[in-house]
Amino acid sequence: MRYISTRGQAPALTFEETMLTGLARDGGLYVPETLPRMTPAEIAALAGLSYEEVAFRVMRPFLGDSFTDAEFGECITRAYAGFGHAARAPLKQLQDNHFLLELFHGPTLAFKDFAMQLIGQLFQTALARSGERVTIVGATSGDTGSAAMEAFRGLSNVDVFILYPHGRVSDVQRRQMTTVAEANAHALAIDGTFDDAQARLKDMFNDFTFRDEVRLAGVNSINFARVLAQVVYYFTAAVALGAPHRKVSFTVPTGNFGDIFAGYLAKRMGLPIERLVVATNHNDILHRALSSGDYVTHGVTPSISPSMDIQVSSNFERVLFDAYGRDGVAVAQLMDELRRGGFHISQGALETLRADFASGRASEAQTSAMIARARAEMGELLCPHSAVGVHVAQDFLGTTPMVTLATAHPAKFPDAVEAATGLRPALPPRMADLFERPERMTRVPDDLTQIETLIREALAK
Ligand SMILES: Cc1ncc(COP(=O)(O)O)c(C=O)c1O
Ligand SMILES: N[C@@H](CCOP(=O)(O)O)C(=O)O
Prior knowledge:
Blueprint: E1 3-5, H1 15-21, E2 30-32, H2 40-44, H3 51-59, H4 69-80, E3 91-95, E4 98-102, H5 112-130, E5 134-139, H6 143-152, E6 158-165, H7 171-178, E7 185-190, H8 194-206, H9 208-214, E8 216-217, H10 224-240, E9 248-253, H11 258-268, E10 273-280, H12 285-292, E11 294-296, H13 316-323, H14 328-339, E12 342-344, H15 347-356, E13 357-361, H16 364-378, H17 384-393, E14 402-406, H18 414-421, E15 442-444, H19 448-460
Parallel strand pairs: 4-14, 5-6, 5-8, 6-7, 7-15, 9-10, 9-14, 10-13
Antiparallel strand pairs: 1-2, 3-4, 11-12
Helix pairs in contact: 3-10, 4-5, 5-6, 5-10, 6-7, 10-11, 16-17, 16-18
Bound molecules: pyridoxal-5'-phosphate and the ligand N[C@@H](CCOP(=O)(O)O)C(=O)O.
């Protein structure tokens, strides 16, 4: 099993190398050279299995000989042991033929835990074997950062630095990062947006002196292992609703395009997915791009679904690679144009994308109204991101079952939920003292050199 870069100029790697490498050295993202497929019989055989067993069967072919079956099985068991629901990703009926996939029962109450808990275990296994030490730097609009800190805090062979946009994450999200006491975990509040944080992270990967000196690793969806672990719940949900004998559609609240890219992989692997609906908030570049073919950045406007306040959607590069016939030179050219403000998707590539993806957007008012309606009519308290999904899904309900991904717990965004419903969702008891814990963070300017200096100094302590 080999992984290649979307820009075609970096060496092919094994699964373990890909996981520990992060961004390819040509600036691209790693993807499998060929995608393992599951037959209808293999998919049917997933019915009735535990989440962990499905995870093993779906992901195992991607790993090659990077991990033994026993190592991988143990990593999966440890990863999901701390989840607060026996099903891990329970499915709930919302409306006729419309289901909610609850992905917020992990330790930090967002879907990021599904992948981060697992890659925490995989990193530990690989690094214990090699004796290596790595520096993880992550960019977050709120949830990746808290999940990463939770998964990597206190580990002896890892330092973790998380860049989050100052003043643009919820208080719960910020505190989940800034109250981590372990000395190997560092929250960095950048003066900028998530896009700025992600751009500086990619700059660090492209600064080979810094990258090699600190042994830089990434746990954003830059890392293919992150996306892979998110493929699993598309299988558990679709099989629970009748796959492979019945088609299923998914609506995915989308920002960096990692979660919906996992759905696209599931479809390519053989899962009968009819439609993948991209749901955006008013930062709607993906909806505009799929509607018009123009992927043009307009700047980010803060929203009540802050984790999706993104304009430069990292994983869109991965589907563009496929839509352009896996032509790395064409993708590199588009990414070059993006640095100057945007690009136009060719007609052929747009038609290819539209064969898999539909899209919609929810304004702030529509998001709030959906939180209120879901509470009143469906008995469901939604986080604003999930509400964006449920709102957009309304236009795509039909005879095929629709699953909307509930990506975070409403208690992570209590102000928005309270404003819409009058109800203030409580954090689970294990987090009840979150607002009493001392915070620790460093403000950093949106400046590569200063951020790298700060990381070097922290590592030298
Ligand atoms: C709660 C929540 N919903 C949706 C998203 C969007 O997911 P993605 O960036 O994978 O598109 C994010 C951020 O990743 C998130 O934290
Ligand atoms: N919404 C995300 C943004 C980063 O996405 P990732 O999937 O690339 O880690 C967040 O919560 O940080």
